[in-house]
TrEMBL record, chain B:
<dbReference type="InterPro" id="IPR017927">
    <property type="entry name" value="FAD-bd_FR_type"/>
</dbReference>
<dbReference type="Pfam" id="PF10418">
    <property type="entry name" value="DHODB_Fe-S_bind"/>
</dbReference>
<dbReference type="Pfam" id="PF00175">
    <property type="entry name" value="NAD_binding_1"/>
</dbReference>
<dbReference type="InterPro" id="IPR039261">
    <property type="entry name" value="FNR_nucleotide-bd"/>
</dbReference>
<feature type="domain" description="FAD-binding FR-type">
    <location>
        <begin position="8"/>
        <end position="108"/>
    </location>
</feature>
<dbReference type="InterPro" id="IPR017938">
    <property type="entry name" value="Riboflavin_synthase-like_b-brl"/>
</dbReference>
<dbReference type="InterPro" id="IPR001433">
    <property type="entry name" value="OxRdtase_FAD/NAD-bd"/>
</dbReference>
<protein>
    <submittedName>
        <fullName>FAD/NAD(P)-binding protein</fullName>
    </submittedName>
</protein>
<dbReference type="InterPro" id="IPR012165">
    <property type="entry name" value="Cyt_c3_hydrogenase_gsu"/>
</dbReference>
<dbReference type="InterPro" id="IPR019480">
    <property type="entry name" value="Dihydroorotate_DH_Fe-S-bd"/>
</dbReference>
<dbReference type="InterPro" id="IPR050353">
    <property type="entry name" value="PyrK_electron_transfer"/>
</dbReference>
Length: 368, 280, 259, 435
């Protein structure tokens, strides 16, 4: 469903939206300030949202500042948003039991659909969600756990009114305003919110809210806000044709990056589209049952490319190539578009302060 | 949309026979414990299962039995690490977990009424054994079967009796080579690719199935191209680290392909660039 | 019933903290003894130092002449030998004495009669003396690690050796990075996983108690620490604490270039 | 008595050794039915912690000193930060002080129940290990594990793990746990307290030798039972602050031990739970007064075998204290206060599970440690242990078999819980007899 024409929700009535969602059986999940960053977690009251908080991000650095601004969403993003909710960092896939005669039984943990309303999903993360959906739901095989979690979601997107130094969603075409996939979308203004539905689920909430007609000047401000955030973005990822990076494997820049890279995997861990995971067993000490666990993995780790007696990617250079070439190049063949949605997390959360966009632009043959 | 009935969670299987093929190679003959699962289970040569050793982990292992065999599923395994070492300790009657089959197998239908050339290197390459068995059972489908196998040391050759047995069959030729061998070695000494000069396959009307180290596969494929084998008649079986086998975990990516679901068997031109490419 | 595999726990120079991974297990300890036969575990009161066992776990580092003889015997008597903790795997915190210019004089600095003290000049890991089949890293190791190791051995396989970098677990746990948000000199990018990313969970930088990860880019991290405003000797101390190893410091050794 | 002793005043320029109370051996010589020679030997090799501390930044001290002992790392950390915070004149917030106490409660509970159940109790049931005991007294052992886990959880709450916890720093803590974590922990502690009381009553009923000895008890005292601070007193009139320790206590070395001996004005003395309870029996909460009254309160006691009951009582105390501290737990604005470095010398102490643990540091203007001295409980008890052994064995009767003498000696030594490795059943016992 397309983004509908917006109506207006006054700032003081915002809590009613949360109430309605709770009324409809959703648990609230949204941005909060914790340990110096904006993190998404369960919350109960509007007071827990990051009012007047802004993130100052640079390559290798993230700081929050506070102001008297009343806005709740006047920030860009934090280290994670939707990914941990849909693709938990750790999950028991199944459990094996062995009885005294050695017979095995396999049990899958009950995957009940939990109704969760996520408040304040940014455009880059909406776009990333669409990619994760493609990967886990729309391929040859479907991930049942992902499916269950996905079904229960109610997504309240919010257009960005601020971009951090690391943001470049305008250049990937994914933001700063959310396009599709949400149930409701908000545009935060000084006095309140423009609110529009993007699904039937979203539509069904609106009648319960004291909405006003959106004024033309509000729409103008919203448009201006969008334009301002686009202008605020100082970085742009140049488009890379299919094969454009793959053919560059011999480029000296890879080695240059590798000499600065820690190979710590943080970029892949914070990336909202990275999907790699491994599986392992955790055997109970009694030896009668074992949990088969799946955990996020990173192509920067040695076990990712390990074959017995042979390591496919021995060096950081090769691991970095795997990450960037997959993300920006092979991804296009796999999913019809690049795997990057411009959130900038891989740069902010890089302990080695590597500028992904700059490096990609150099390697892609464009300007920095 | 889910493709196979048993993809994410294993089902229990029982070891009905354990055959020690050589010091480090053994065959597990498995039967699914549940009769309904047995009836449903179908596979094609070249496909693989994820075998689960209780409390230890899963590994991808090719199926080497014939799809028309009774309900016994055979896996020939080489001991190389944790899980395979554990599997090697199984005995008749022991249980393990199995999920599968996964991947696209050998193009045996495509090879119908043509010559079949099988090239393998290394220590007895399990994935092609299924194709050999398949063809031997259906001699009327294939004009000729040539098996070319190379090993490093003469002692690495296992299943000597099987080769002898195959060689006896009508329409089958077997050529063996060892890089290093003693005087008692009756076959070729040297590279496996040298044997390709001696095969009697109709190069222009054959299907080639190759399995082994990437270097060997590349050399063999290039040589065969020179000999006039059409590029789209050459198939290879690839390996990468594998965790989920359903294209989700990201480990087995080879460029834009996921070996578990887009392979493990690939047609040569599709992955020609990837062979021996460093870090891919 | 088949005989249970036999196990011994031996101690060398250490704080005893790693053995607590067993003694703090609670009832799981009783469960464990349902599956293995503990032949020697002094802390728990089982004594037979010279028993022949399937698995010998060794805590502590080699610091005396007597130790060098004991460890040989333990190795001879064990089918598998597994080290537990930093002391045993890398020499541990007492290997700080390996960095000293004149460790030989230390006993005299402390004891009025140093001649009574049997002390080698170095604190050495077990692997410097005998073959080690598997290492459990950490100072201290935790119960998860040891039960996973025993569990695997009971299934007839070696334990999983996870040398992954701590950052990966830190992110799985959803901790906010101390280096990025506070400019703290976190050792996570070169430290081996296993603790569950405890320090970042507590908002502090990892100080490396689990030892070195795979492919550790020490020099790159050291450079980054300098960039955060640390002085050279501060950086050096960060790298030389629980697993002191002089070669690790400041890119003088390996880890600087990608290789 | 032991070998030749070399008397020495230790000064800060010749720092003494930080050592783990370690592996022990016992040597007895009995001639014509009398004890001629008795040696309680600690041969744990030295680990030189005081040397490692030299040149380290003060902020690293808690992580380093923890590694001296895996069983009482909190005690080492707290004594160290007490010293450094006094030098830097840090004003701790009430929350920090409370949490230090809470953390310390955890260590007492963990260490004491480990000692009671895994180390001491098997003796009383003619078992060599807790595993054997578990077969005879499954409920008691289960209860012991449950209580021990309460201690582990308390330490994990503030320190992430129970061995070498990582939460403490000079100036406070690295993080304040959440309300939800506190509430969950509080529930566990509440459920453990009645179990501990039952355990104490059970311990009180065990058959203990009735053996009175004369010794001096030395412990911190404070109006609220001493854990992490107090004045040092003895039952013979000592009453000093932390800086005066070395005026009264000296350390010396004897050839058969790698642990230094500590003496109070040349005499041996007792530290640890019994000494603590002897000096602080009036500082217990009312429920423990009632419990002790019911059990025929033996404290103050000169019977070393009352040490196990003293530990049980301290577990009850610590669980109760922890419960009180958690009841009104609030998340503070900040878990630590800023620290301003000052050069100088400082001392700090606290009551480790096994007794007084005293530290001294010399710090320069950059906050770098220039010298350190640490006196752990075991060096303080070592002379007392030898004296006790001599007396106890005479009282027990030297005519007993080697085996019986060994068992009795071990029981005596274990009363001091000198350290996990020598408190357990592996004394190398050798008795030489001549007719
Ligand atoms: C499609 C396919 C079919 C295969 N068929 C067979 C066969 O029929 N017979 C046979 O003996 N071997 C086969 N292999 C190889 C076999 O999977 C590995 O030898 C096995 O995974 C090694 O596991 P390990 O635990 O013993 O070794 P370790 O070295 O301890 O490996 C640890 C983990 O790494 C991964 N890993 C290591 N090597 C490989 C590998 N080559 N491929 C995928 N993952 C790996 C696994 O997750 C494994 O559990 C096949 C591999 C693939 C990809
Ligand atoms: S590794 Fe650490 S915890 Fe383990 S014994 Fe050594 S000092 Fe203690
Ligand atoms: S806090 Fe440390 S371990 Fe965690 S991501 Fe940052 S650098 Fe890595
Ligand atoms: S975060 Fe680092 S220092 Fe802290 S416990 Fe883990 S490995 Fe040890």
């Amino acid at each position: 469903m397309e983004r509908q024409a917006p109506r207006f929700l006054a700032r003081q009535n915002f809590p009613l939206l949360l109430e309605q969602l709770v009324e409809h059986g959703y648990r609230l999940h949204g941005p909060q300030v914790r340990d110096g960053a904006i993190v998404y977690d369960t919350f109960h009251s509007v007071d827990q949202l990051p009012r007047g908080v802004q993130d100052q991000q640079q390559v290798g650095s993230y700081r929050l500042i506070t102001s008297s601004n009343k806005r709740l969403f006047h920030w860009a993003n934090g280290p994670q948003a939707l990914k941990p909710l849909l693709q938990p960092a750790r999950e028991v896939l199944w459990q094996a039991k062995r009885d005294a005669n050695g017979a095995l039984a396999f049990m899958v943990p009950e995957s009940s659909i939990a109704k969760v309303a996520v408040i304040g999903v940014k455009a880059c993360d909406m776009a990333a969600l669409a990619l994760q959906d493609q990967h886990f739901l729309q391929g040859e095989y479907e991930d049942p756990g992902y499916r269950a979690r996905r079904e229960g979601l109610f997504l309240v997107a919010v257009d960005c009114s601020y971009a951090a130094d690391t943001c470049f969603c305008a250049s990937t075409g994914d933001g700063p305003s959310a396009q599709t996939g949400f149930d409701l979308v908000l545009t935060e203004l000084e006095t309140g919110y423009l609110i529009a539905a993007g699904s039937d689920k979203g539509l069904s909430i609106l009648p319960h809210l004291p909405l006003l007609d959106a004024q033309p000047q509000d729409l103008d401000i919203a448009q201006q806000q969008h334009a301002d955030v686009v202008a605020m973005q100082s970085r742009a990822l140049q488009p890379i044709p299919i094969g454009g990076l793959d053919r560059q494997r011999g480029h000296p820049q890879w080695q240059d990056i590798a000499d600065r890279c820690l190979g710590c995997g943080n970029c892949t861990m914070v990336c909202p589209t990275c999907f790699c995971h491994h599986q392992k067993d955790e055997l109970a000490i009694k030896g009668d049952e074992s949990q088969h666990v799946r955990e996020w993995d990173s192509c920067f780790g040695e076990s990712h490319g390990e074959l017995t007696g042979f390591q496919v990617r021995k060096t950081i250079k090769h691991r970095y190539q795997q990450w960037m070439i997959h993300k920006l190049d092979s991804w296009q063949e796999q999913y019809g578009r690049s795997g990057c949605t411009g959130c900038g997390r891989c740069m902010s959360w890089c302990p080695a302060d590597i500028d992904f966009v700059k490096e990609a632009n150099v390697l892609g043959g464009g300007s920095e | 949309m889910s493709r196979d009935y048993q993809t994410q969670t294993p089902i229990a299987a029982r070891v009905v026979e354990f055959i020690q093929e050589s010091d480090a190679i053994f065959t597990l003959r498995l039967q699914l414990e549940d009769a309904a699962e047995r009836a449903r289970y179908q596979f094609m040569p070249g496909q693989f299962n994820m075998l689960y050793l209780f409390g230890v982990g899963e590994v991808p292992i090719s199926i080497v039995s014939d799809p028309l065999d009774d309900d016994i599923i055979d896996h020939t395994v080489r001991v190389v690490g944790r899980v395979t070492r554990g599997l090697a300790q199984l005995k008749k009657g022991d249980r393990l977990g199995l999920r599968g089959p996964f991947g696209h197998g050998w193009p045996l239908a495509l090879a119908r009424d043509k010559d079949l050339l099988i090239v393998t290197g290394g220590l007895g390459c399990a994935p092609v054994v299924s194709a050999i068995n398949y063809a031997l059972k259906r001699p009327e489908h294939y004009r000729k079967l040539s098996i070319v196998q190379g090993v490093k040391h003469a002692n690495d050759l296992i299943w000597q009796h099987r080769y002898d047995d195959w060689r006896e069959r009508e329409g089958v030729e077997v050529l063996l080579a060892a890089d290093e061998a003693g005087p008692a070695w009756p076959f070729h000494v040297g590279r496996i690719t040298e044997l390709l000069d001696h095969v009697t396959t109709a190069y222009d009307n054959c299907v080639v199935m190759i399995c082994g180290p990437e270097g060997l596969m590349q050399r063999a494929a290039e040589l065969l191209l020179e000999k006039g084998v059409p590029p789209y008649s050459i198939y290879l079986s690839m390996e990468r680290n594998m965790q989920c086998a359903v294209g989700h975990c990201g480990h087995c990516q080879l460029g834009a392909d996921f070996i578990c679901k887009d392979g493990p068997v690939f047609v040569y031109p599709d992955i020609r660039e990837r062979l021996l490419q460093e870090g891919v | 019933m088949a005989t249970k595999p036999t196990v011994a726990i031996h101690k060398f120079s250490s704080c005893d903290g790693c053995q607590l991974a067993l003694l703090n297990m609670g009832e799981a300890l009783v469960d464990l003894t349902g599956r293995v036969d503990i032949k020697h575990f002094a802390e728990a009161g089982v004594l037979d130092e010279s028993a022949h066992v399937d698995i010998a776990f060794v805590e502590g580092s080699i610091v005396t002449k007597l130790d060098t003889q004991r460890i040989q015997q333990i190795r001879k008597n064990a089918r598998y030998l597994i080290t537990m903790g930093a002391c045993a795997t890398s020499g541990g915190i007492q290997a700080l004495k390996n960095l000293a210019k004149h460790p030989a004089s230390w006993p005299a600095d402390i004891y009025p009669q140093p001649e009574f003290i049997d002390s080698l000049d170095r604190s050495e890991p077990i692997k410097a003396h005998v073959k080690v089949d598997f290492e459990l890293w950490g100072c201290p190791i935790n119960s998860r690690q040891i039960s996973a190791a025993i569990g695997a051995m009971l299934e007839g396989v070696m334990p999983r050796d996870d040398r992954e970098k701590l950052c990966i677990e830190c992110k799985r746990q959803g901790h906010v990075c101390t280096l990025i948000t506070q400019g703290e000199p976190c050792m996570g990018p070169v430290t081996r996983t296993g603790c569950g990313a405890l320090c970042p969970e507590f908002g502090r930088a990892c100080y490396g108690c689990y030892g070195e990860s795979e492919l550790p880019k020490n020099a790159v991290l050291a450079r980054r620490f300098l960039g955060l405003g640390l002085l050279t000797d501060q950086v050096e101390r960060r790298f030389q604490l629980i697993h002191p190893e002089p070669e690790r410091t400041l890119g003088l050794g390996h880890g600087g270039q990608d290789d | 008595m032991g070998g030749k002793m070399t008397e020495r005043r230790v000064t800060i320029d010749v720092p003494s050794l930080a050592r783990v109370e370690g592996e022990g051996a016992l040597h007895l010589k009995i001639e014509q039915g009398t004890l001629q020679h008795l040696q309680f030997k600690i041969y744990e090799p030295p680990r030189f912690f005081e040397k490692f501390l030299e040149g380290r930044h003060y902020s690293e001290v808690p992580d380093i000193v923890a590694r001296i002992c895996g069983i009482c790392p909190v005690a080492y950390q707290v004594s160290a930060v007490n010293a450094l915070e006094s030098l830097f004149e840090v004003e701790l917030t009430p929350w920090i002080k409370q949490m230090r106490r809470l953390l310390y409660c955890g260590e007492w509970i963990q260490s004491h129940s480990l000692h009671i159940h895994l180390l001491a109790l098997p003796d009383y049931f003619h078992e060599t290990t807790v595993l054997g005991l578990a077969a005879k007294q499954p409920d008691a052992v289960k209860r012991g594990f449950f209580i021990q886990e309460a201690g582990n959880r308390l330490i994990k709450f503030l320190g992430g793990r129970s061995v070498h916890p990582i939460g403490l720093q000079v100036g406070g803590f690295h993080k304040a746990p959440s309300l939800a974590e506190a509430a969950e922990l509080h529930r566990y502690i509440e459920s453990a307290l009645p179990e501990a009381i039952a355990m104490a009553e059970w311990v009180a009923r065990l058959d203990m030798p009735d053996e009175q000895q004369s010794f001096t008890s030395v412990a911190l005292t404070s109006p609220h039972y001493p854990l992490e601070t107090g004045r040092l007193k003895s039952d013979r009139g000592l009453d000093i602050g932390v800086d005066d320790y070395e005026t009264y206590f000296t350390e010396s070395q004897c050839p058969h031990s790698t642990a230094l001996w500590s003496l109070l004005k040349g005499e041996n003395y007792l530290v640890g739970p019994l000494a603590r309870l002897n000096l602080n029996v009036n500082g217990l909460p009312p429920f423990l007064d009632r419990l002790l009254a019911k059990l025929g309160n033996p404290f103050p006691s000169q019977n070393m075998f009352h040490s196990m009951l003293a530990r049980a009582v301290e577990i009850c105390f610590a669980l109760h204290e922890a419960s009180e501290l958690l009841r009104n737990y609030k998340v503070p604005d900040t878990p630590s206060v800023p620290v301003r470095v000052k050069a100088g010398e400082c001392c700090g102490w606290s009551e480790a599970p096994r007794g007084l643990l005293w530290h001294r540091y010399q710090v320069d203007a950059e906050g770098i440690i220039r010298a350190a001295k640490i006196v752990p409980p075991t060096s303080q008890n070592q002379a007392r242990i030898e004296q006790d052994l001599a007396q106890s064995l005479q009282a027990f009767g030297l005519e007993h078999s080697d085996e019986a003498l060994r068992l009795h000696s071990e029981k005596v030594i274990r009363n001091y819980d000198p350290c996990i490795s020598c408190a357990t059943h592996f004394l190398r016992f050798s008795a030489e007899r001549s007719p």
